[in-house]
C-alpha cells in the first residue's frame, strides 16, 4: 500500500549488494525492442498489443500494436540499466540504454528466445525466473498464523533456500555480474519484505518496539544502493522500509492517522527538516536522491500541486536525470489533469476500453448518474483497508442527504471472506465483489500499485482524481468532495 505520510513516505532504491556504483546518463539513449509473438491464434482471444511496463514512480507504460504476422517494435528512452516487464508471454527482461534487442516468443508454448544485445543476460534471467531456482515457500502466506519467532524462522529458511538455489544456478549458467547482482537483490527484497510485513501488519501498541528491533538490518539494506542496475522490486518494498528507517516518525503517523493526515505547508516543512536531519548520517547520495524524489512524487500523487511548488527547491538537488525527469513529467501530467479533468478522464477510459475494468466502472457511473462518486478499491487481506473503513462510514453518514455515492470494490479476494468482512464490519454504501479476472483487469488498467486505492468522479461522470492518498479521514479529501458537490 502507498500513502502520503508527512513523516513517513515510501522510498525507492537502486538494488545491488556489492556491485559498482550507479551509472546513469544525463541524456537518454533509445532502446529498441523488436520481435515476434508466434502462435497467438491458439488463443480464443489473441493479444493485439505488446505492453512494456517500466516500474518507476508512475509505472510508465508503452503499448504498440502487434502486426498480423506477430511482429512488433518498441522504442524506450533510457537513462539507466534496469529490469522491465513485457507482456504477453515475455515477462521480465533487463535493458541497457541504447540496446537493440530481438525477442522471439511462442504464445502457445511460452518459450522465449533472445537475440541481439544482452542476449546472454536475458537468457539467464529468464531461465532463473521461470525455473525452480527463484521459487520458494512464501512466508507471507502464514503472516497471521505464526508468532514472531516462528515467522522469523520461516523467513530465514526461505532465504537459505534461495541462496542455495542461487549457488546452483550460478554453477550451471555462469551468468554475468549484472544478473548475479539482480538475483542477490531479488533474494534480499523477498526476505526483508516478508520480515518487515510482520510488525507493520500488527495493529499493536508495541509496533514501535517491533520496528526498533529491526534497525539492525538497515545497514545491509542500504548496501543495495551501490548497484548499476535498478531492480523493480524496490518500488513496492520501500513503503515498508521507511517505517524502519524512522520508527519514531512511523509511530507519530500511526497515531495521527486516527484523526487526520495534515499536509499544510508549515507541517510539511517541519517534516522535511526532520527527515533531512535523519538523512544526515547517510553518505549514500543515490539513496538521498531517491528519497527526495519519492517525497515529491507522493505530493503529486496526492494532486497537491501547491505543496509541491512550495517544496520545489528539493528538485534542484536531484541530479540523476532518470529521477528528475520522471518527477518533472509526472508534474506536467498532474497539473494538466487538475486543469482539465475531462481530458484526463477520457484518456483513462480509453486506456481501459474493452476491458472488464471499464465495464465495471461504466456500471458504477451509470447506476449513480448525476452524483459525485467516491470509490474505495480494497482487499480482504489488506489491514490498512479495514482500518480506514470506519472513516468511510463516517463520510457516508456526513453526506447522507447529499448527491454522492460511496462505492466499495473488493478485488483479489475470496468471495466468502468478502461476505464475512461485510457482515463483521457492518459496512454500508454500495458494495461490489470482483472475480479474479475482473480484479486483474482493474489492477492493471487503472493502474493500482497498492490498496486501498481511491477514485473520485464528478457529477458529469468524469474521473477527477485517483490514488492511494484520497483517504476518507483526510481533511483534504473532504475538501475535494465538497468542491465537487459545490459546497466549498
Describe this structure in words.
The protein is of the alpha+beta class and 488 residues long. Helix content is 46%, strand content 17%. Among the domains are: 29-133, Sandwich (Immunoglobulin-like); 356-484, Glutaredoxin. The strands form 3 sheets. A 5-stranded mixed sheet has the order 11-10-9-12-13. Strands 4-1-7-8 form a 4-stranded mixed sheet. Strand 2 (49-54) and strand 3 (60-65) form a beta hairpin. The chain starts with 28 loop residues before the first strand and ends with a helix. Residues 1-20 and 246-263 have low confidence and may be disordered.
Concise overview:
This protein has 17 helices and 13 strands. The protein is an alpha+beta fold and 488 residues long.
How does the SSE layout of this entry go?
Elements: E1 29-38, E2 49-54, E3 60-65, E4 71-78, E5 82-87, E6 91-95, E7 100-106, E8 112-116, H1 119-130, H2 148-173, H3 177-200, H4 207-213, H5 218-222, H6 233-245, H7 247-256, H8 265-279, H9 285-301, H10 305-310, H11 321-339, H12 341-351, H13 356-367, E9 372-378, H14 383-398, E10 404-410, H15 415-425, E11 430-433, H16 436-445, E12 453-457, E13 463-467, H17 475-484
Parallel strand pairs: 1-7, 9-10, 10-11
Antiparallel strand pairs: 1-4, 2-3, 2-5, 5-6, 7-8, 9-12, 12-13
Helix pairs in contact: 2-3, 3-6, 4-7, 6-7, 9-11, 11-12, 13-16
Amino acid at each position: 500500500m502507498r500513502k502520503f505520510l508527512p513523516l513517513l513516505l515510501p522510498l525507492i532504491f537502486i538494488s545491488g549488494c556489492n556491485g559498482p556504483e550507479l551509472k546513469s546518463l544525463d541524456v537518454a539513449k533509445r532502446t529498441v525492442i523488436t520481435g515476434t509473438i508466434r502462435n497467438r491464434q491458439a488463443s480464443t482471444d489473441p493479444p493485439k498489443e505488446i505492453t512494456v511496463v517500466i516500474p518507476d514512480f508512475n509505472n510508465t507504460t508503452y503499448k504498440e500494436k502487434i502486426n498480423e504476422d506477430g511482429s512488433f517494435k518498441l522504442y524506450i528512452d533510457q537513462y539507466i540499466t534496469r529490469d522491465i516487464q513485457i507482456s504477453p508471454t515475455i515477462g521480465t527482461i533487463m535493458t541497457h540504454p541504447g540496446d537493440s534487442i530481438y525477442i522471439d516468443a511462442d504464445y502457445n508454448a511460452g518459450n522465449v528466445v533472445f537475440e541481439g544485445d544482452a542476449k546472454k543476460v536475458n537468457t539467464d534471467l529468464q531461465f532463473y525466473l521461470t525455473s525452480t531456482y527463484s521459487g520458494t515457500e512464501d512466508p507471507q502466506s502464514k503472516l497471521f498464523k505464526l508468532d514472531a519467532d516462528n515467522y522469523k524462522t520461516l523467513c530465514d529458511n526461505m532465504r537459505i533456500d534461495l541462496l542455495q538455489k542461487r549457488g546452483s544456478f550460478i554453477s550451471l549458467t555462469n551468468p554475468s555480474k549484472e544478473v548475479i547482482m539482480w538475483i542477490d537483490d531479488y533474494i534480499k527484497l523477498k526476505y526483508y519484505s516478508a520480515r518487515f510485513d510482520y510488525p507493520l501488519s500488527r495493529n499493536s501498541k508495541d509496533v514501535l518496539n517491533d520496528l526498533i528491533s529491526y534497525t539492525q538490518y538497515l545497514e545491509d539494506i542500504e548496501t543495495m544502493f551501490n548497484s548499476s542496475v535498478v531492480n523493480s522490486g524496490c518500488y513496492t518494498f520501500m513503503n515498508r522500509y521507511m517505517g524502519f528507517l524512522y520508527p519514531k516518525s512511523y509511530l507519530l503517523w500511526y497515531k495521527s492517522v486516527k484523526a487526520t493526515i495534515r499536509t499544510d505547508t508549515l507541517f510539511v516543512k517541519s517534516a522535511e527538516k526532520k527527515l533531512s536531519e535523519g538523512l544526515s548520517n547517510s553518505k549514500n547520495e543515490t539513496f538521498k536522491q531517491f528519497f527526495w524524489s519519492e517525497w515529491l512524487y507522493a505530493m503529486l500523487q496526492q494532486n497537491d500541486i501547491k505543496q509541491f511548488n512550495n517544496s520545489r527547491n528539493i528538485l534542484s538537488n536531484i541530479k540523476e536525470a532518470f529521477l528528475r525527469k520522471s518527477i518533472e513529467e509526472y508534474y506536467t501530467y498532474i497539473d494538466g489533469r487538475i486543469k482539465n479533468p475531462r481530458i484526463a478522464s477520457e484518456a483513462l477510459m480509453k486506456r481501459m476500453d474493452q476491458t472488464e475494468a471499464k465495464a465495471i466502472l461504466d456500471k458504477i457511473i451509470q447506476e449513480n448518474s448525476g452524483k459525485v462518486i467516491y470509490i474505495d478499491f480494497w482487499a480482504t487481506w489488506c489491514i490498512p483497508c479495514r482500518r480506514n473503513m470506519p472513516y468511510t462510514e463516517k463520510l457516508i453518514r456526513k453526506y447522507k442527504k447529499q448527491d454522492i455515492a460511496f462505492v466499495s470494490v473488493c478485488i483479489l479476494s475470496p468471495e466468502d471472506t468478502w461476505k464475512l468482512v461485510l457482515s463483521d464490519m457492518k459496512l454500508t454504501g454500495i458494495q461490489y465483489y470482483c472475480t479474479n479476472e475482473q480484479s486483474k483487469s482493474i489492477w492493471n488498467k487503472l493502474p493500482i500499485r497498492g490498496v486501498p486505492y481511491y477514485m473520485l468522479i464528478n457529477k458529469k461522470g468524469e474521473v477527477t482524481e485517483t490514488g492511494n492518498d484520497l483517504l476518507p479521514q483526510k481533511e483534504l479529501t473532504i475538501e475535494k468532495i465538497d468542491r465537487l458537490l459545490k459546497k466549498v
